């Protein structure tokens, strides 16, 4: 089948792209739209490195087809910072050294942001369960958890 | 691959009848797209059902609940009224995969994928859930109990699709529960799963359904296990009878997640535990 023209909103901007029906939304974001922040770890929905928000739901973009995004609102890691001003979560991940290789980090930040928007004051257990689908092979998770809990506390102070 | 997004179920069936080669229907995609990306199944035609009106709705009727085929696990978990009526079904669905998978995965997908270890299916069977279907020969209502026929297989005919899941209204003085055993705390596939729905009159169990998963080629109800509970007040004798009946119904495989002996033993332990949760819920219910 020929390629299809898809109209979406990505990080607040109206974006059209052309893609093959077999292409994942992750491949579209990376290869067609140049948004390479979302990473491919496993490509089968196990690792969470490609996490994005699709109409306000946290999903793995490797398990969404590009053609399924027609009319949808997409938020990626590229939309988390405001210009050069990092999001509190990004600052805290750096401060707590919550990353080494960095492949999982965009997915972790997108997923953690989704949790804090739903529940600004999660317990550590709630956070660990929420992030269970974001695999990290470097940090051992503790630094990530501390960074997100610290960011949550910081965001509650601001609110 | 031909990607089609019909507006109605009738149109979907007509498209399916015309399709040549490998056909797949798409809702949440957490199995279909994994198979596509792993080169296990590359459909020639992929029919996306999410454009059909009502597929994202959870509707309460006088008879119970109609759950649309594209309702995600996250949407089910967030539905407080459904959670009050059927906490076991909701918890079972919520156990599947990660937060990200919950954003897309559906009850119907879990059922149609045909895994003997599907978490939501024992809970649906214990709840007496049914599926409305549409195919070339018209509509059918099938009990969820009758749908799985083997690993990866269902009784659905080629070109027949489930159009909604119906869960009856929970009876008075009743409660359901589902638990699974996995060697980790999250993100794993059931080694044993058990769903139980109980109705009580005071302390006495007057109705029971017990379903077990991951311990046989198909998920199944165990009538002998239910009989062991009915008439009892969940005393030690009833629990022992439940565990024996469940273990007798097991016919599991040996694999990296658990040996045959282990699965059979754990099935009895888990059934006792789930029965206690369902019993406590039934006694608290109005």
Task: Explain this structure.
The complex is a heterodimer of chains A (about 160) and B (about 290). Chain A has about 160 residues and is of the alpha+beta class. Chain A folds into 2 domains: about 5-80, Beta-grasp domain (Ubiquitin-like (UB roll), Roll), CATH 3.10.20; about 90-160, Orthogonal Bundle (DNA polymerase, domain 1), CATH 1.10.150. Chain A is about 35% helix and about 15% strand. Chain A has 5 helices and 5 strands, in the order ββαβββαααα. Chain A has a 5-stranded mixed β-sheet with strand order 2-1-5-3-4, sandwiched between helices. In chain A, a hairpin with a 2-residue loop joins strand 3 and strand 4. In chain A, helix 2 (about 90-95) packs across helix 5. The mean pLDDT of chain A is about 95. Chain B is of the alpha+beta class and about 290 residues long. Among the domains of chain B are: about 1-50, Uridine Diphospho-n-acetylenolpyruvylglucosamine Reductase, domain 2, CATH 3.30.43.10; about 175-285, CO dehydrogenase flavoprotein, C-terminal domain (Enolase-like, domain 1, 2-Layer Sandwich), CATH 3.30.390. Helix content of chain B is about 35%, strand content about 25%. Chain B has 11 helices and 14 strands. Chain B has helices spanning about 10-20, 30-35, 75, 80-85, 85-95, 100, 105-110, 120-125, 225-230, 235-250, 260-285, and strands spanning about 1-5, 25, 45-50, 60, 65-70, 130-135, 140-145, 150, 155, 160-170, 175-180, 190-200, 205-215, 220. In chain B, strand 8 and strand 9 form a beta hairpin. In chain B, helix 9 runs antiparallel to helix 10. The termini of chain B are far apart. The model of chain B has no long low-confidence stretch (mean pLDDT about 95). The interface between A and B is medium-sized, with 31 and 26 residues.
């Amino acid at each position: 089948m020929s390629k299809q023209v898809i109209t979406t909103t990505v990080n607040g901007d109206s974006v059209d792209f052309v893609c093959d029906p077999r292409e994942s939304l992750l491949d579209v974001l990376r290869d067609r739209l140049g948004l390479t922040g979302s990473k491919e770890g496993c490509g089968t929905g196990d690792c969470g490195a490609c996490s994005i928000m699709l109409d306000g739901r946290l999903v793995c973009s490797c398990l969404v087809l590009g053609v399924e995004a027609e009319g949808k609102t997409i938020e990626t890691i590229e939309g988390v910072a405001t210009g050069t001003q990092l999001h509190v979560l990004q600052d805290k991940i750096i401060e707590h050294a919550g990353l080494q290789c960095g492949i999982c980090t965009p997915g972790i930040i997108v997923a953690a942001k989704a949790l804090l928007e739903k529940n600004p004051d999660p317990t550590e257990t709630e956070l660990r369960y929420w992030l269970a689908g974001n695999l990290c092979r470097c940090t051992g998770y503790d630094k990530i958890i501390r960074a997100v809990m610290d960011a949550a506390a910081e965001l509650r102070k601001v609110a | 691959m031909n990607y089609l997004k019909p507006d109605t179920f009738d149109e979907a069936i007509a498209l399916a009848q015309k399709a040549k080669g490998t056909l797949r229907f798409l809702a949440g995609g957490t199995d279909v797209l994994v198979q596509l990306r792993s080169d296990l199944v590359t459909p020639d035609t992929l029919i996306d059902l999410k454009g059909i009106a009502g597929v994202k709705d959870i509707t309460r009727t006088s008879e119970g609940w109609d759950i649309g085929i594209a309702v995600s696990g996250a949407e089910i978990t967030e539905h407080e009224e459904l959670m009050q009526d059927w906490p076991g079904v909701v918890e079972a669905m919520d156990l599947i995969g990660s937060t990200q998978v919950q954003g897309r995965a559906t009850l119907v997908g879990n059922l149609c994928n045909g895994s003997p270890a599907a978490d939501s299916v024992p809970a649906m069977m214990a709840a007496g859930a049914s599926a409305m279907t549409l195919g070339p020969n018209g509509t059918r209502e099938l009990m969820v109990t009758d749908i799985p026929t083997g690993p990866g297989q269902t009784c659905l005919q080629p070109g027949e699709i489930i159009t909604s899941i119906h869960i009856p209204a929970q009876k008075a003085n009743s409660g359901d529960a589902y638990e699974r055993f996995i060697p980790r705390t999250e993100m794993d596939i059931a080694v044993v799963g058990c769903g139980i729905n109980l109705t009580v009159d005071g302390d006495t169990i007057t109705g029971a359904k017990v379903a077990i998963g991951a311990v046989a080629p198909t998920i199944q109800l165990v009538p002998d296990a239910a009989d062991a509970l009915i008439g009892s007040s969940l005393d030690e004798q009833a629990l022992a009878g439940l565990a024996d009946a469940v273990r007798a119904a097991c016919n599991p495989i040996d694999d990296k997640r658990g040996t045959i002996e282990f699965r059979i033993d754990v099935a009895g332990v888990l059934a006792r535990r789930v029965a206690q949760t369902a019993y406590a819920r039934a006694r608290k219910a109005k």
